[in-house]
Fold these 3 entries.
Entry 1:
Amino acid sequence: MAGEGPAAIPAAQLRLDEAAGLDARAVLAIARGELAPSLGGGLARRLDEGRAVMLAALDGAGPVYGVTTGMGALAGHELTQSARAGQSEALMTARSVGGPPWLRPAEARAVLATRLRSFLNGDAGVSAQLCGRLADSITLGVLPALPRRPMGVAGEIIGLAHLGAALLGTGDVLAGNARTTMPARRALSRAGLAPLRLGPKEGVALIQGVPMTTALAVLAAADARKVLRQAVIVVAAEFAIAGAARDVLDTRLARGDAVLAGITTRLRDLAGPGGRPRALQPPVSFRAAPQVLAHLDRTIGALGAAAGRALDGVSDSPAFLDGQFVGSAGFYGYDLAAHLHAVTVALIGAAELGATRLHRLLDPAVSGLGPQLSARPGPQAGLSPVHKRAVGVTHGLRRQAAPSVIGPVETSAGQEDAQSFSLEAAQSCRIALEGATEVLACELLAIHQARCLGAQAGTAALRAELDVLTAGLPGSPRDRPWGRDIERLRERLSG
């Protein structure tokens, strides 16, 4: 569907003099529209010098996969000289089989940034012109329409073929959002760019590696970190409202575990010391919360480390290393997929515990308030329906807990006889992030309702945090269409 062309986003310039300057933090800032990359003269010169060495080696190298031969099961077919001339661009045509839904603009910017970073490492032997075009695509807002749905391929060839086709002007780009597209040639013309022409090996370089999964992993780690921060506030408030015993928030219980100690300290600082507990021991969903949040913290850190390895690593196949063309499996993405799955499961665990604590808050024996946090039990339902929404979300999330790395499938006439399905792992993680945020919104609404009913919510610092998150919600505890409040909270938490 055609639409208005994407617009350039004003952003500070990130001048790149070395590959390391485009790290995960910079990728995140580019995705958010805060930075736009450009190549420094010295880096551009080194890229072209490296490409000249690669092209000279190509002349006497014999068969080079995807450059002088076909790809996949067709790798045994030598290309004629005339076929080689158009090989880089031909690789994008038949492989562009994806369709909507497309990645969002922020995600597309992140993919362009990670693709650029992998090229700046020098292993692909691509030109400074190609790298510059990737940077220009970000700066000018010419963002390729990249399929979100996973494909049965060993790497990301199908999604990256769409990226390459957009550069060539034969594909499509996003037209302002992730729902409409426009022909790339028209968008390039509006941006003052000509369709890019690819030289030898640049085509196979464009469709190798895991820049899409890497980009989505960087974004997922940042979003999960935000969910973790919000969850700590919510759990602390639930401890305070329930008058739960603070025993499990004693940092002495976190001996040998610095992450757990940090989470415990933050929870206790927000919830406050508390008075006489309402029960000798709070429900397990309260007591286990620090461990579950600490585990989420650790999985986020591990995912960030995996994304760093992907940004630094050799992902091209064949890579050009020390004058040799070396085949690799850098396209497989197993490391990223496994860590994305770990974060997904940790998010689901946190969401399930959150829905359980929400249920406990509806019990007067736990909250000390009216049944179901109702202002008038009987005539008014209170928040029981809100808990049911949270239960529905967590039940749906369980389907995302199946690891994508399990269950290899053969494609390409058996040449690709296993897939990591790393993009599927990224998609599952995104769904888990959205679900965990929705459950937090339900919990926040219950906390707000409890406060409207007179419950005390911990320290002044905690009350200030809650006031920001729940600003604009009605101050009355009477029944209303709770879904409107949940959506307002969900948008605020996601923003």
Note: The chain has a mean pLDDT of 92.
Entry 2:
Amino acid sequence: MATNPYTVLHADGLARAGELRTAHGVIPTPIFMPVGTVGSVKALAPDDLAAIGAPIILGNTYHLYLRPGDELVARHGGLHGFASWSGAILTDSGGFQVFSLSSLRKISEEGVEFRSHLNGSKHLFTPEKVIAIERNLNSDVMMVLDECVPYGADFAYTEKSVGLTTRWARRAKDAYPAGTAPNLIFGITQGGFFPKLRKRSVEEICAMDFDGFAIGGLSVGEPKATMYELLAHTAPLLPKDRPRYLMGVGTPLDIVTGIRNGVDMFDCVLPTRNARNGTLYTSLGKVNIKRSEYAEDDAPLDPACDCYTCRTFSRAYLRHLYASHELLAFRLNSLHNLTYFLGLVRGARRAILEARFDAYAASVEALYPEEAAQAGL
């Protein structure tokens, strides 16, 4: 049996504060992981990420396999050496990317055959090959190959998919036996939008000795209330002594809702993508920096934030950069948004340790009333 890399330090209801031990550092949880799909968090350098205290980032197996190639990355010291990142790295299996390329792929028992979105070349991902790619990348946390079913898939298809995801997970585990250092390996539970199948997937995947477990297949187009119902159903079923990862989710409200239900790890492109589109998250709610009302606003973006952007520049300057299509806007906005998201989970961790998480979550919910109403909160 693998040595458990995770310790729960304190719980407040279902919310947990813990530590995940990796080959590149101890990760305090709950944690938000900035997304660096191709080995780079868009618009930011590793020293930017270090400055805002990001202990772990996410890379993507599918994209790095296609370009520049996992073997090239391995020759350059793995993804840590290649990207000059000294913190931890989690790599997705590529299952979601293949799901999003439905017109270019074919799923079978063997794996997923797909055509590259770059040049149309044909490739095959098997559970074993995905693990081999991730070992070349030297990920601290490797995710197994799974099938992410679309919202609206019927019970029969989803049931068949759950079985396939389980068999793939077993093959991945066999390819990377328990206790094989230094990489950790997480299983992914699926089940679509059927509570019965979600429970079955948890039972099957969690029967295997993975280092941690993920909830996949949410935030794929379903109503917010549906996502929260399935999250509340699924997360507490996962083993209490292992880290729990909600994949590809989400907004600040999604994150505090996930934490309330016992989730420890999150990732999403939202903070950096929205930063590049001029939507910024602050202690007072969202700010659309494109708006003309900020043209002569000398105040910092968020007076409660101590990031480089807020310490140094006015809202007027940030609006000017965005309106002028200056690349610096991408960096300053991304620095701030990721600072906000990392501060969000740090605040949640403190609140859990001090047994006041419900009040903390309520304060976050109050900043996003429209989204909370959509979710039925």
Note: The two ends are 41 Å apart (CA to CA).
Entry 3:
Amino acid sequence: MKSKRKAKVIEIIETYDIENQEELLCKLKTEGFNVTQATVSRDIKELRIIKRLSAAGKYKYCLPEKDANDFASKFAAILSSSIVNTDYANNIAVIKCYSGMAQGACAAIDAMHWDGLVGTIAGDDIIFALFRNEEQAMKMISDLKKY
């Protein structure tokens, strides 16, 4: 649901000149997403949405310009400095992190769009990642061990 909502947020700000969180919240509700202002605020932060001056002279939400190599190197740095150990059981990957680092690492993992990743949940020092099948979980663990 979170990824669908974020995709809808991106679609909305690319389609409409959204000036504030209240407008975005109303558009999301119109599209069937029952969210709070706090959720919208978190989505804006996680998507790194910024405000830019529009042609009409008003500020509107926009996606940041992306440099894929820059994001990849940032994610690699986050993961390599956060992860202590990894393992999996069936279709669930378990990523052990240094204390206080799991949520940042989890956000990086979410942003990397792993094949078959259904969802993640992070505590203070551990991440659980649910995959559609065991092979996908095993592949993620194998890839994470490179960090």
Note: The two ends are 29 Å apart (CA to CA).
